[in-house]
Amino acid sequence: MNPFKTGNLERMLAEQIQKMQQMQQQLGEERVQASAGGGIVEATASGLGDLVEIKIKPEAVDPNDVEMLQDLVLAAVREALTKARELQQQKTAELTGGLQIPGLFGP
Fold first, then answer.
1. Looking at CB atoms within 10 Å, which of 49, 79, 91, 100 has the fewest?
2. pTM
């Protein structure tokens, strides 16, 4: 049996598309968390890289040092989004056997 026959390729492609859709749904449901300032600021992102929650402990709110709070929020968000990208790469590698597919989850 020739795996490169048109019907086989179409079936294989349809299966891969279905697996990618399932993976994207799973990533959308997964959550990654990151914190800054020893847990004073926490950021949560979906596996797709969408920021879904920010938690700030009351002791982080100092009206005389807003800049520090901004830096902590930024650091936590960046780390959460980095973790989301790493999760995407891991799941994509599992699906594609390590083959990089441009545009699947960004550049």
1. 100
2. 0.74
